[in-house]
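quick one, two chains, predict together pls
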Amino acid sequence: MNLDELIATEELCERYSVEHTFIRSLNNSGLLEVITIEKREYVHCDKMAEFEKILRLHNDLEINLEGIEAIKHLLVKLSNLKEENMALRNRLGLYE
Amino acid sequence: MEFIDYYKTLELDKSATKADVKKAYRRLARKYHPDLNPDDDSSKKRFQQINEANEVLSDPEKRKKYDEYGKDWQHADHFEQQKQQRKSARGASGGYGGFGGQGQAYSGNFDNDNFSDFFEQMFGGGARSRGTGRSPQFKGQDFNAELQLNLSDVYTSHKQTLTVNGKNIRLTIPAGVENGQTIKIAGHGGPGAQGGPKGDLLITFKIVNNTKFKREKENLYSTVDLDFYTAILGGEITVDTFNGKVKLNIKPETQNATRVKLKGKGFPKYKKEGQFGDLFITYNIKVPTNLSSKEKELYTELQKLRS
């Protein structure tokens, strides 16, 4: 794994003003993948958009982690349904 | 520019307490938050209105000014000036101190700065609160763009230059991209807040079919007219594929609407270089018309042979 693509969790805590326990809770609930290399914890940069989204839902809307988990699950379902809808629309074009 | 009824926006009446405002804001923000309504512009717009209403109604000073001037908001500054002059004349001290940031406006990567002209006019651009007082770095806003291409354009991968917010972006459009598909160009969105990373550019493709082929994912479909005699006796015909012509053997006694598959003659598979779908050809048998008396005679003979 390329270390340049990893962000240390301490840096995340500092930049986003969050407690380390928050990052740990996200990891425990499966919402954020934390990678440990030589006893140091990191988050991959590709996960940052997801992390920021979680942070917004948590801070702005006061949604707890269980709620965020449920939302995430539903958003994935929504996205799959949108894709399916688009594929069906494209298929419908065959009969028009 | 129209007056905006912030109470109506938050579905409150004028007697609402600060707790009521907070409660209404939370309730509506949870309903219209852009993170919960991806790709929904109407929710995003509604959320901005809710945010703006909360910005005003959750701040006692802003709310006071808003309540005091109501629909006369356009003259608010003028009234304010007169009030100050009267106060000065009476020897009262302390000027108008502007607005502090006490609201809890959303501070994410959406159009946070997109306050209405009404708000700007009444409270000025510097009147926005900055969330909860912390200043986290946030990724910039994602830009959405739609790119219309012809089906024939996406048969091969090609480079295209797009101009987004005055900047030229050269991107490779992979062969086989689908109608409605969105691709992400990382780092070409809006600038991040507080030094955060740039947002992404999301391009949704609208593919217009400019060909006689119908497409479903990587497979293509077409209908080919087949003359009656070739259908009965068999033979060879030449058909169009997406990238040229091919010869096809027609079996004797081919029925109308028979479908044949030309393997690998379909559309390129997305991001699978060198792999193609199939082309399905449906035969449409053309029955002869305007028969001569001789032809009628011969067909009648044929009919007798079959009965």
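The first helix of chain B runs from residue 6 to 9.
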